[in-house]
Specification:
heterodimer; A: mainly beta; seven-stranded mixed beta sheet; four-stranded antiparallel beta sheet; 11 strands; B: six-stranded mixed beta sheet; five-stranded antiparallel beta sheet; globular
Chain lengths: 114, 113
């Protein structure tokens, strides 16, 4: 599959569970992002990786732990989440990091925390 | 930092009519303004963007206008069709390596038959 692929599409977890979200991009991009999309809120940038190095952590709680083993793969490890963390988590990539870079999004993981 | 306000949050228009979505931004240094469309259950996709060196850009039925003085920009969709039903996000950024895109809250557009 081309583009940006995210798994799983849906995830239900309890507050004490540990789970991981996976993102893979097949576009040869150097930058990858995690966004949180909640109802009636702007898309919130969580993390930015450029050439596997984290360049931005937008004051995200430590219960969210990103991992970028290479430029094509990005993970978001989840641990002891809260119900308010329920949202659509979108991965994106771009050729480079920059304000005017076109973002290519994945289809997202719809997360429900019980 | 940059703040992007988007209005309205919901918009319903009759098929064939025009739709306009408006955004304002706070950082006068912002010079890049993309619009993303997210259909129900699908990923957001860039549909059009404009840079601050032009006041208007068109691509078939969609157009974006920019007023730098007033710090607002708008998306115009003419001859709306059912497939235009989606959530539209405006955004603003500085075209700089270290900058990031700031999104508005989105507008849910319904095209009525």
């Amino acid at each position: 599959e081309t583009g940006v692929t995210q798994t799983p599409r849906h995830l239900v977890m309890g507050m004490t569970n540990k789970k991981s979200l996976k993102c893979e991009q097949h576009l040869g991009h150097n930058a990858m992002y995690w966004y949180k999309q909640s109802a009636k809120k702007p898309l919130e940038l969580m993390f930015v990786y450029n050439f596997k190095e984290q360049t931005e952590n937008n004051s995200v709680p430590s219960r969210f732990s990103p991992e970028c083993p290479n430029s094509s793969h990005l993970f978001l490890h989840l641990h002891t989440l809260q119900p308010e963390d329920s949202a659509l988590y979108l991965c994106a990539s771009s050729q480079e990091v920059g304000g005017d870079e076109k973002l290519f999004f994945g289809s997202g993981t719809q997360l429900s925390v019980l | 930092g940059e703040n992007v306000e988007q209005h309205p949050s919901t918009l319903s228009v009759q098929e064939g009519d025009s739709a306009v979505i408006k955004c304002t931004y706070s950082d006068s240094a912002s010079n890049y303004f993309p619009w993303y469309k997210q259909e129900l259950g699908k990923r957001p996709q860039l549909i059009i963007d404009i840079r601050s060196n032009v006041g208007e850009k068109k691509d078939q039925r969609i157009a974006v206008t920019l007023n730098k003085t007033a710090k607002h920009f708008s998306l115009h969709i003419t001859e709306t069709q059912p497939e235009d039903s989606a959530v539209y996000f405006c955004a603003a950024a500085r075209a700089h390596r270290d900058d990031k895109i700031i999104f508005g809250k989105g507008t849910r557009l319904h095209i009525l038959p």
